[in-house]
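Anyone else keep sequences and structure tokens together like this?

Example one:
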Amino acid sequence: MATLPAALDRYFKVTERGSSLSREIRGGLATFFAMSYIVVLNPLILGGADSTGEILGRDRVAAVTALVAGILTIAMGAWAKHPFALATGLGVNAFVAVTVASHPGLTWPDMMGLIMISGITMLVLVLTGFRTAVFKAVPEGLKTAIVVGIGLFIALIGLVNAGFVRRIPDVAGTTVPVGLGFDGKLIGWPTLVFVVGLILTIALVIRKVKGAILIGVIGSTILANVLELVFKIGPSFDGKTSNPMGWSLVVPTLEQFKLPDLSLIGQVNLFGSFVHLGGVAATLLAFSILLSIFFDAMGTMVGLASEAGSIDEKGNIPNVDRVLFVDAIGAIAGGGASVSSNQIYVESGAGIGEGARTGIASVVTGVLFLVAMFFTPLISLVPFEAVAPALVVVGFMMVSQVGKIDWSDWGVAIPAFLTFTRMPFTYSIANGLGAGFIAYVVIRTVQGRAKEIHPLLWVVAAAFVVFFGIGPIQQLLGLG
């Protein structure tokens, strides 16, 4: 078994955190496989044309998505020393795509400039210590709720993207938003891959087999590729027709070497949104983006650090300033490279569940992203159905912390409940945090215990009131 040089062991605190080089490598691999789908999915989300008819180009978006994710993840591992991987945030890139499509005159460079402005603002908040202060002001009960919420969230991501749970079309007579499989039935070989992978992963975890999660991913991947080779299953949606029995995000195939096209880097218009939308509308958009990336990262960081056991008895995370700094740079870099804001990924929990505890895992993940710019087989061979079981199992691990919440104190219990239910139900970590913060301030005030509320939480709660009310505010200002 390979051993780590003493200097690197001390630098990354591998032994101190109860890890080993092999566990970190396995963790880095597990995280990469769990989130590599973004290299395929991001070009699809950002693939539409702006108001001028310009498109970013799928090959270009894929290459730069992998490049930015690789560099930022290596920085997170080598400098901040945590097993947190970064890539383009799904919530933000979807918001960007919808915004560009719905605002005449707004171009991709304009919107990416708005993301850069949000990132620069967040960087200032990090450098002034404001973002760290907000993190420390959050009550312990809500921090625990964040962990539970993220656990539920990533489990739901795994179930939905694997096709085990599916969205039900919003039509007359529909009584529930999601259901089991397709039309109430589990169908298709991809769903079988997920079920087999989940059973295998749970069995390996229960038996405490080393590399349980990674073995589960590899075993499911092999099964998926055999099934695709034999039955030619294809995608769930090919751009024209829907196939409920197809692979959800990635069809397992072997692709060839391809030189990356990085020409999107630098194609950004920093203040273009203010010219085309006006100062008030552009500012409101920037505020929405800022609040989302600000609290998504904070919530994800708390949840992952708790699962990794790197939060001390006072609720502090080592090198938290560095973690938040890299995350802020992720928004700036993502905007500057035209692939949308990059942020810490909840799928990093797959690597942590595999045993990753230090930045070495992130370095491994980051290097694999850089390799993915050239060799897509690592990505295209692994369908989401093969990594979804890992997310469900890690979700269970994180939800198990729910017992730490003081359910007898309604001032904490109700906000905690709102926090961890809103995250999966709205598909947003920031939404869950906002509901929890507002409820905490209101309930503590009603209880006559307003003095216990940290002054920063009043500011944060007020900001979220504006965030949730952004629609009516825009309508009142004639911007909706």
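And example two:
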Amino acid sequence: MNVRRSAAVLSAVAVLGAAAPAAADSSPSPSPQPLPSALYGDTDPQYDGVWRQSLALLAQHAAGAEPPKAAVGWLTGQQCADGSFAPFRADPSAACDAKTMVDTNQTAAAVQALAALGGHDAVTDKAVGWLKSVQNEDGGWGYTAGSPSDTNSTSVVVGALAAAGEKPGEVKKGGKSPYDALLDLELPCTGKGAGAFAYQPEKDGSLTANADATAAGVLAALGKGLLAEPGEGDGSAAKCVKAATPEQAAANGAAHLAGELAAQGYLLAATPGAEDQPDVGNTADAVVALAARGDTAQAEKSYAWLEKNAAGWAAQSGPAAYAQLILAAHATGADPRDFGGTDLVKQLQAAGPAAPEKTAKATEKAEDEKDSDSPFGVWWFVGVCLVAGIGIGFLISNRTKRQQP
């Protein structure tokens, strides 16, 4: 809502050497540096460190497992003095400045994780204060301060506000609340994509259905965050009706998702020029959204599909992917320790501070890259920087590509 689903895909992107969200620091280090021992995953955290750490902590909490104190301490130490979070700061002792690329998604995800764990009010209060200070006049949030509102960023901030004990509907700017922004981003109940949410309006002001944004929009309209409890619906999706309230907007979005999932049990990755393939991350997000509203019939069917097909995807994608599946299990009331024969919690923990071999492996990899005379590493980095410079990065580009009919 990864922003939300971005977590899993961001880790996969790092594995493949592709671009990710906005850079924390555009200046390359003179040589590869060992990863922080308290960080989850062994891929470059420059673009998604705080996001994937937050999801990893949140997922363990959801599964009743206590995250390592070192991992929690690393996350709190990433906060800037103004309350915001950047994806990754290699030296937390150095003050953030104008070049530190903070964003709403990393900040809101950190709030959700730390609020769930408890005992971090000073950190979360400061972060919520920063989020309120960068709210747009339409009531929503963009990925970075001052950027146009989008459904995904607004959603993850709504989740942070709710987790911190705020009432999202009462957090207003220019007289508008985040729910006003969300209602403006939902498609009508007639025509293509009826009831879905758009990521952002097109240049001509029209709205295009987006599955990732729809899952995010449903959760936000319900006032829920990444860690969603099972809802109390009648088990089936509602009929789309013109939305005058957040609750109706959530019902409409859920009906759209259920309809898209009905035929095959999963959503398709609508990537231009590529063959249709299952979109595992979006499907997991849709399961959470449907379950959170109480639309259990389709949520359970799609969760069953995930149990049969998602373990390999998570193993390739990294800790945030495992976290995403754990959150889907939690929302449906399933056991993440028996996910089609895979213990998701164990796999997630193996990617964190409790696994010394992970740190050794990452350090060895960094040394190998440092000593190599091959130009591949240099050009790989240049490619990442070029792609990162095109726009906000993977969080936004991925969402806009995954447009659903």
